[in-house]
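[worker-b] picked up task from shared queue
[worker-b] task type: protein-ligand structure
[worker-b] ligand name resolved to 2-acetamido-2-deoxy-beta-D-glucopyranose; SMILES cross-checked against name lookup, match
[worker-b] sequence length check passed
[worker-b] input payload:
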Amino acid sequence: MASISNFLLIFFATLFITSESRVVRAPFRPNSLVLPVHKDTATGLHVANIRKSTPQVLVPFLVDLNGNFLWVVCDQNYSSSSYNAPFCHSTQCSRAGDHYCHKCHSAARPGCHNNTCAVLTINPLTHRYTVGELAQDVVSFQSMQGSKMAQIATIPNFLFACAPSSLLQGPFPKSGQGVAGLGHAPVALPLQLASHFGFPQQFSLCLSSSTNTSGGIFFGNAPYKLATGFNNISKSMAYTPLSIGPQAEYFILVKSIKINNKTVPFNTSLLSGTRGFGGTLISTTTPYTVLEHSIFKTFVSFFIEQFVGVPQEESVPPFGLCFNSNLPPTHVGGYPNIDFVMQNRNVSWTILGVDSLVNARPNVSCLAFVDGGLNTRASIVIGAYHLEDHLLHFDLSNSKVGFSSLRKSHPVNCANFNFTSALTPEEDRMRD
Ligand SMILES: *[C@@H]1O[C@H](CO)[C@@H](O)[C@H](O)[C@H]1NC(C)=O
Ligand SMILES: *[C@@H]1O[C@H](CO)[C@@H](O)[C@H](O)[C@H]1NC(C)=O
Ligand SMILES: *[C@@H]1O[C@H](CO)[C@@H](O)[C@H](O)[C@H]1NC(C)=O
Ligand SMILES: *[C@@H]1O[C@H](CO)[C@@H](O)[C@H](O)[C@H]1NC(C)=O
Ligand SMILES: *[C@@H]1O[C@H](CO)[C@@H](O)[C@H](O)[C@H]1NC(C)=O
Ligand SMILES: *[C@@H]1O[C@H](CO)[C@@H](O)[C@H](O)[C@H]1NC(C)=O
Ligand SMILES: *[C@@H]1O[C@H](CO)[C@@H](O)[C@H](O)[C@H]1NC(C)=O
Ligand SMILES: *[C@@H]1O[C@H](CO)[C@@H](O)[C@H](O)[C@H]1NC(C)=O
Ligand SMILES: *[C@@H]1O[C@H](CO)[C@@H](O)[C@H](O)[C@H]1NC(C)=O
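[worker-b] inference finished, payload out:
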């Protein structure tokens, strides 16, 4: 592995030297970067491999749409000649919003220095947290020109947090060595990359529903053309206002829910967003969409009314409603569509019939929604399963998010993006 990445490093370095000796020297300014992402078979969560450190290694990260920065465990296997930890009260620390000084009583190593800045690192799956060290190291990304892969873009002093490996608990993807945060925070990936390269403050998410093919995260210009030969999908994107929660997380306002085009009768005051509580959160670390308990109860009984003639089965956790998946002949009308209606009835997030159910066991399908109980962080949390095969465009400068169901409007999915030249043989092997 090391020899392949060394070879690639030398290969790319040679490319740069030979091309730059002919061309006028100018700093490389990509206007978009792409990060291939794959779905972890065991957890259903999504993992991105990021090129990092000197010598360069590929590090797998859990993708956390609402995370505040990139964090990686570095108490055991982190070895990089380009690692450095800024001193407390430095500009880097204030940029990351860290005002506490770190002290460490063991031998100095990455993550353990005195007078560096302390940063609270959180595991989004267990909500456990611990103090880490703010650090900088070299990080590289694949750049794009239109929908084609271009050269590798490198950031020498990317800010991230260095955390103890005890933080990797819970249903964490097995290979994961940290969390890649995409939240609306100054050193989370989208804003740190936009500020370094000077491209627009926007990013797009296209998660693949298959564990066999990669989806991607696109920083900068949106990949409206997923591949050559496909139409520009910008016209079929619907946009809704985006609001930012107190922990830099992404909320939208769902005004009502429809099943089979009929409004589900629950108290919609639960849906109106007071900042950080109520409202609809979008999350990649929640596998299935979660509904607050009273919404869930009404939603489930309404769904049963719309799905007549299909025998129920004992429910399979974490789901609350399951059916026999062999549709009986007495059933008519197929699977009901579900709409999350936004600012007006023209803007809705549609969950197509088959996507509202998930195969939980042989012959048993469950409604792909989970009862969140009474004190949920948000009344609705749209989870990873319902984000898959949608192109989501987070336009942070204009506080809006666009979405397009690729399944509904286009004969493509997130796996259609041509990563052929983006994946090195090593990355290809690291996928499940
Ligand atoms: C560090 O590397 C060793 C040997 O490769 C491995 O056994 C161990 O699990 C690794 N530790 C972590 C936290 O990844
Ligand atoms: C930090 O300072 C303490 C003394 O205040 C010392 O014992 C410790 O070894 C130092 N840690 C590192 C990593 O240098
Ligand atoms: C993924 O690949 C495996 C083995 O190649 C195959 O058995 C499986 O059906 C594929 N899954 C999907 C969703 O395409
Ligand atoms: C797609 O259309 C949008 C505006 O409608 C435009 O800004 C963008 O450049 C187009 N993208 C491609 C790849 O043609
Ligand atoms: C759903 O209802 C709207 C009006 O509320 C109507 O315009 C639309 O055609 C209906 N769609 C279906 C599939 O019935
Ligand atoms: C909806 O909930 C709000 C706040 O809990 C309450 O004030 C209101 O009366 C409820 N409306 C209905 C129709 O139950
Ligand atoms: C919804 O779409 C229809 C047809 O495209 C349009 O006539 C109507 O004005 C739209 N309504 C709103 C509230 O945007
Ligand atoms: C699933 O249903 C089919 C057809 O009814 C039946 O042949 C099969 O044995 C069932 N499988 C299980 C695991 O129950
Ligand atoms: C993907 O890109 C590679 C390299 O540019 C090209 O050889 C291949 O034909 C493309 N595949 C598709 C399906 O467009």
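[worker-b] attaching auto-annotations
[worker-b] The pocket of 2-acetamido-2-deoxy-beta-D-glucopyranose (ligand 6) is lined by residues 267, 269 (CB under 6 Å).
[worker-b] releasing lock
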